[in-house]
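Q: How do we represent a protein-ligand complex in a form that can be generated token by token?
A: Start from the inputs.
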Amino acid sequence: MVFNSKKISKSRLETFFADAQFFKTGELSKLEEFELTDFDLCVVAGGDGTLRSVVQYLMENHIKIPIGIIPVGTGNILARNLGIPMDIKSASKIALAGNYREIDLGKAKVGSEPAMFFTGISGLGLDASIMENTHPKLKKRIGWVAYIEGGIRSLPPKFEKFEVTVDNNESKTLKVLTLLVANTGTLPGKFSLLPDAEVDDGDLDVAAIGPRKIWNWIDVLGRILWQNRFVRPLVVGRKLMDATSNLKSLEYLSGKKITVVSERESNFQLDGDLMPPAKKVTFQVMPKALLVAC
Ligand SMILES: [Mg+2]
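Then emit the structure tokens for the protein with magnesium ion bound:
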């Protein structure tokens, strides 16, 4: 069991996983002392970032072991896409039930840096700026709604030019707010950003997002915010509409290898974690590389 101690306590988890060995997210190197393949299951209790770091560790060390997810993070994108419940008790039952699904993984390469893996969504542009601008404290308090607050502070939206090459096709130049490369399609709140994205179809999906889609996105999240009485969504929406009224909407692409070259260094995130800004990123799908209890 690898758990994020900022999100959940060990004692809480012990109720459901009495026989487990426990490791905090910062202690992944301790796993080296164990023959992980002797274990039946590696349970991750945390958010998308915790899951990403565990997957990174397993992939780097060529360890194949089923993964269970206790989603206690902000976005919980993979868990939501797989239908894993958000409450700890039900998620624990599913983790231990022994039903596994093989799913794809995303791999991102920047220059000669080691490969980075992601299970959900990676983004360049505004999306990554949102992650950069999201207050960790606020994220803890109001969950994924905090991303929108980050979005507001990323305004006015800056358009970026990306040259995108999918597999062996001709490259396309897209001028957009944000470019998402995704293994999963659903954002928190069950809002489907990439309706065709499937976690096990052997393809990564790309959404190049212009204003109309962003408007929908803000609109949907705005309604939730309205309920939270946190910000006035109409103000945000109007600001975005004004800033983006002359631009084209969105474009969907999908393939096994996606190369993105940005005009200038662009903010870059993997599963919600901000990476160093990048100019060129090569994404590849790793078909059915992960076995997940769900
Ligand atoms: Mg896919």
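The two ends are 16 Å apart (CA to CA). The chain is about 30% helix and 35% strand.
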